[in-house]
Design goal:
A hairpin with a 5-residue loop joins strand 8 and strand 9. 32% of the residues lie in helices and 28% in strands. The protein is α+β, with helices and mostly antiparallel strands. Keywords: Dioxygenase, Iron, Metal-binding, Oxidoreductase.
Length: 282
């Protein structure tokens, strides 16, 4: 197993209620977001969340829904799976959490686009996105040895937002030196990761984040994630502003749904982190 390091991913404070586009505070955070993503492809955001917390590994299990902004989807796909008789309080809490996460997702997306002078694409990227909400459980490994809860991978998303629901750690990202960094996020923060679809859209200007879950001890780990993916039928293509003589086109347009039909989840995992990159590289 590759080496691990005690280095820390930057934590950015988004708790300022008066944060507005074009303000000095906004511009400062925008710089910090871009800097962290250039270095790690990932970062942590401190934002009040406590009110909202009430071959795959054999340890991993999940339930999920697409179009998470629609409250009925949460009720039908998540709540009734756990409580067939219904649980109104849980549905409302999860819907509130989702709206908060969606707001943060749009803020981060706008900051990234502004940092490249591409804010005119904001509405297009929001419209193409299918927000997939997933609740995840990593079971107890029952061994003293570190055990993979989920193997190393890179999400095919635009952005991924993760929130840990208990105190059991294990989420790690890989830095540029190939070392694994334990994130140890607090219960009132989000971890934000750049996905491969957005890295390709940016013509490789920012790299996506490779991560894994490494379980130790005898407790289960719970987390929830919002995965912003390109909708099927939409061609993800590099904007013309990111292509010039010094920066040639690196990727051809692709439809994520067509890619997933061609490359089954098992094949994607077997081929590792370059599957989507190889699929659409020029």
């Amino acid at each position: 197993m590759s080496s691990r390091t005690g280095a820390k991913v930057p934590v950015i404070d988004f708790s300022n209620q008066n944060l507005k586009p074009s303000s000095p505070e906004w511009d400062l955070l925008k710089f910090q977001v871009r800097e962290a993503l250039e270095e790690y492809g990932s970062l942590c955001f401190r934002k009040p969340l406590r009110a909202y917390h009430g071959s795959q590994s054999r340890l991993y299990d999940s339930i999920s829904t697409d179009d998470a902004h629609i409250a009925e989807n949460i009720e039908q796909c998540l709540t009734t799976t756990l409580w067939p008789q219904g649980n109104i309080s849980f549905s409302k809490t999860l819907a509130s959490f989702t709206q908060l996460a969606l707001g943060l997702e749009k803020t981060i997306l706008r900051m990234i686009l502004e940092s490249f002078g591409l804010e005119k694409y904001m509405d297009e990227l929001v419209d193409l996105t299918n927000n997939h909400l997933r609740a995840m459980k990593y079971g107890r490994p029952n061994t003293s040895e570190p055990t993979l809860g989920i193997p190393q991978h890179c999400d095919n998303t635009i952005l991924t937002l993760l929130s840990q629901l208990n105190e059991v750690q294990g989420l790690e990202i890989q830095n540029k030196n190939g070392e694994w960094m334990n994130l140890n996020p607090s219960p009132n923060s989000f971890v934000v990761m750049l996905g491969e679809s957005f890295s390709i859209w940016l013509n490789g200007r920012l790299s996506s984040c490779y991560h894994r879950v490494l379980m130790e001890g005898n407790e289960a780990r719970y987390s929830i994630g919002l995965f912003a993916r390109p909708r099927g039928g939409y061609l993800v293509k590099v904007p013309k502003e990111l292509v010039d003589d010094k920066n040639p086109m690196l990727f051809k347009p692709f439809d994520l749904e067509e890619f997933l039909k061609t490359y089954s989840p098992q094949i994607v995992q077997e081929r590792g982190k370059s599957a989507l990159i190889a699929y659409c590289s020029v």
